Amino acid sequence: MSPRRTVMIVGNGDIAAGAAAAVDAADLVIRFNDCRSMGAGGSRADVVAVCNTGRPARAMLGSAEWRRSPAVASASEIWSVRDPRKFAALRAPLAVSHPELDDFCDDYTDQFAAFCQATGKRHVVIDQSVHEAVDAALASHHPGSYVVPSSGMIVIADVLLRYPDDDVAITGFGHTGWEEHPFAAEKRLVDAYVSLGRLTRLADTNLISASQGD
User: Fold this and answer.
1) How far apart are CA 26 and CA 40, in angstroms?
2) Are the C-beta atoms of 12 and 214 separated by less than 8 Å?
3) pTM, entire model
4) Per residue of the chain (214 residues), what is the pLDDT tens digit?
5) Is there a domain that residue 1 lies in?
6) Cα 173 vs. chain centroid, distance in angstroms?
7) Which long-range contacts (CB under 8 A, 24 or more apart) does 137-141 make?
8) Do residues 176 and 182 lie in contact, with contact meaning Cβ atoms separated by under 8 Å?
9) CATH code, 203
10) Does 194 reside within a domain?
11) How far apart are CA 141 and CA 126, in angstroms?
12) Domain that holds residue 138
């Protein structure tokens, strides 16, 4: 039987004081997008999970600074959080409900895959079934109307599925940000996972601000 590993998911929100050492001691460290959590949230990145559609994707791919950043350069894997099939299906309904999000579903997955191939990294696309399972799990936590779950919530759900026998911890999750993510419901869902012992939050006192959420 393999020994239990520690998987650390580090969001771009407030980081628990003293978290850096715990993050860097983990067996696997996952960060998000531009990895603003580096520094206060430790110095390691094994995985960078990215929004692979819309403006965030375009900005990252077009940024030499992002490509050369310590987190991206050191990561062995890039995870595309948004399954292209799911977002292709969302395009038509969003054109009616949120016409201002006309580029939200523009897909850059192939460009992230090409970047990974060129830099010797593994590229992973989180399956749309994870997104749909998160939607289902959020339903009992009164999410109200929203567009999609946050990248952080998708990655937490995926990691819990991917590494069921490991210890999963999070820091840098303030559950605030874009108004079309159901952050209040996501906080309740994460708190439920914590109460069930499936997930651990690093100490949430004496927070150091990195920036607000994903």
Assistant:
1) 15
2) yes
3) 0.92
4) 667 899 999 999 988 888 999 999 999 999 999 999 999 899 999 999 999 999 999 999 999 999 999 999 999 999 999 999 999 999 999 999 999 999 999 999 999 999 999 999 999 999 999 999 999 999 999 999 999 999 999 999 999 999 999 999 999 998 988 999 999 999 999 999 999 999 999 864 334 444 434 4
5) no
6) 10
7) 137/189, 138/182, 138/185, 138/186, 138/189, 141/185, 141/186, 141/188, 141/189, 141/192
8) no
9) 3.90.1480.20
10) yes
11) 23
12) 6-208
State how far the Cα of 173 lies from the Cα of 205, in Å rounded to an integer: 13
Instruction: At 23, list the tokens.
Output: 């993050």
48, β-bridge pairs? 31, 78
Which two three-digit tokens encode residue 119?
């830099």
Residue 213 domain-assigned? no
Domain count for the chain: 1
Domain membership of residue 157 (yes or no) is yes
